[in-house]
Design a protein that fits this description.
Elements lengths: L2 E2 L3 E4 L3 E7 L9 E5 L2 E6 L2 E6 L4 E11 L2 E8 L14 H116 L27 H10 L1 H6 L7 H14 L2 H14 L4 H13 L3 H15 L6 H17 L3 H14 L4 H28 L3 H14 L4 H13 L3 H17 L7 H6 L3 H22 L3 H15 L8 H17 L1
Parallel strand pairs: 1-6
Antiparallel strand pairs: 2-3, 3-8, 4-5, 5-6, 7-8
């Protein structure tokens, strides 16, 4: 229930001033509502709801926030002294005044919205008319330019025809003159023609020989997408090709260079898109299976996706390829560490320890190897004890299972699964306080993330986001059940369920119906108790 807030007020003939101390409440949570005779201020968990003595001018009301105090200035509709801030009357009268004020405010808001819409339509119509005027002006300008160009072209054409007629008339006069003078000029004409032929022959003799012919062949880079390059998105196309390589290869549509595939795989890997990177590296290895560095990068991607089996295969192939070669020992060390991680993922702890020990024989001072070796020994022992406890738990021997889980946690305090299962045992044994404590510790470990233990192996087996969300929901529901059974923490149990429903709604695989039903039961219980 909201708490009634504190306020002070003063008045003049014209204004009402209300001062409200916010008591540390954030201004972001502040909400002020006014109507003709209503003033409502909400700043959770406080609420001030006043039915004013007389009407005010809603449009002229102002709110000022300064130094943690809200100052509200209300303008009276009639200039007179009220003498009191709130209206005093029967519940029916107060309710009727409130409903009338809300109805008037709703009508005023609708009217304002209609006026705003009308104004917007008028502005859009005016803008449209202005655009049309500009278009007409531009069209007229283009028509004038076309008409001017047409006139100039016609004048030029008429002038050309006149020049042609003049030239034709002059040529006809020259022919007539030649006919008249032909009897006296035959010898001169022959001499001139002979000289012109000699000059032409001399020019031909000076010309260089023709150049030799050659053939030029142009080949275009084959592209799967037939769009012009200027219209294509090459980067997205390459990513599509790599991600859909299997279908393209099956239909014989893929022909990509292995170096390009390797570079695309590196790009995907740097962005955290390990699935696409694996596809690119796999295509490159199909083209050339001897690419050790590509196979190593693919095994890293398998580790990141927690796929231990394919990583084991890649690492064993790398060790076979470098066994009889003069490769740097660094490659073998990194491969054996990665192979140990893969065996650790598949819970083959003996093989994981063997690989870490083999890597340590090559480099005895490598801190990463030492940390992995120590944690693998601890975790393998803790996991063995947890498996024994799981068997007892499945047989409903909650006391024995809780004892075994405790031993596992003594070996590896960061084994969240053992802590979760022990909380379930305590719930079955009706040790509600211990159940709440274990559930809280497990939730804190999950919230801290991979920083729980300072080892890459611990980070490797930390639950993925989907599993982490499911575990969180389970722990919150379990802690809520323990609190509810204690009897004096019903409100806290409700908060746990509400937090659980928030996590459950983010995952489609989690059924939240039972949680919603439990929340409804608790709300009913709380309402009955109040």
């Amino acid at each position: 229930m909201p708490i009634t807030g504190e306020y002070t007020w003063s008045e003049t003939n014209v204004n009402i001033e209300v001062l409200i101390p916010l008591k540390g409440v954030s201004p972001k949570k502040l909400d002020v509502f006014t109507a003709s005779n209503i003033l409502k201020v909400a700043f959770p968990p406080f609420l001030i709801d006043l039915n004013l003595f007389a009407e005010i001018e809603v449009e002229q009301c102002r709110a000022i926030l300064k130094e943690g105090t809200l100052k509200i200035l209300l303008t009276k509709k009639e200039d007179r002294v009220w003498g009191q801030l709130c209206f005093e009357g029967t519940k029916e009268e107060i309710k009727q005044r409130r409903n009338d004020a809300l109805r008037e405010r709703e009508q005023r808001v609708k009217q304002q919205m209609q006026q705003a819409a009308t104004k917007k339509m008028e502005e859009e119509r005016m803008v449209f008319q202005q655009h049309m005027a500009i278009e007409r002006k531009e069209q007229q300008r283009m028509n004038d330019i076309k008409a001017q160009e047409k006139r100039e072209a016609e004048e030029s054409m008429h002038k050309t025809f006149s020049d042609i007629k003049e030239n034709a008339r002059g040529h006809q006069n020259e022919q007539t003159l030649k006919v008249i003078c032909s009897d006296n000029a035959d010898e001169n004409v022959n001499a001139v023609c002979f000289d012109e032929l000699n000059e032409a022959e001399d020019l031909l003799d000076d010309l260089p020989p023709p150049r030799a012919t050659t053939h030029a062949t142009f080949r275009h880079t084959p592209r799967l997408f037939k769009t012009p390059l200027r219209e294509s998105t090459v980067k997205q196309e390459q990513e599509f090709i790599v991600k859909n390589r299997l279908g393209l290869k099956k239909n014989k549509l893929l022909n990509v260079d292995k170096m390009n595939l390797q570079s695309k795989g590196d790009e995907f890997k740097s962005r955290g898109d390990y699935g696409s990177a694996i596809n690119a590296y796999s295509d490159a290895l199909d083209a050339d299976p001897s690419l050790i560095d590509v196979m190593a990068k693919r095994s890293v991607c398998f580790i990141e996706l927690r796929q231990g089996v394919p990583c084991i295969k890649d690492c064993l192939d790398i060790l076979d390829m470098i066994k009889n070669s003069a490769e740097d020992s660094t490659i073998e060390i990194e491969t054996r560490i990665r192979l140990g991680k893969a065996y650790f993922l598949t819970k083959e702890y003996d093989k994981a320890l063997f690989q870490f020990e083999a890597a340590q024989e090559i480099d005895k001072n490598n801190d990463t190897i030492i940390d992995c070796l120590n944690y693998a020994k601890v975790h393998s022992e803790a996991s063995a004890r947890k498996e024994e406890a799981d068997k007892l738990f499945s047989c409903h021997d909650f006391a024995g299972a809780a004892a075994e889980y405790t031993k596992a946690l003594e070996v590896d305090p960061h084994l969240i699964a053992a802590l979760m299962n022990r909380s379930a045992c305590y719930l079955g044994l009706k040790q509600f306080v211990s159940c709440i404590a274990d559930s809280t510790m497990a939730l804190e470990s999950l919230s801290r993330g991979k920083k729980t233990a300072n080892c890459v192996l611990a980070d490797l087996i930390f639950p993925d986001p989907c599993t982490k969300r499911k575990w969180t929901v389970t722990l919150l529901c379990r802690r809520s059940a323990a609190k509810r059974l204690l009897g004096d923490e019903v409100q806290s149990a409700m908060e746990d369920l509400e937090l659980a429903i928030q996590h459950a709604k983010r995952d489609r695989d989690i059924d939240s119906k039972n949680i919603e039903q439990e929340i409804a039961v608790l709300r009913k219980q709380l309402s009955n108790s109040s």
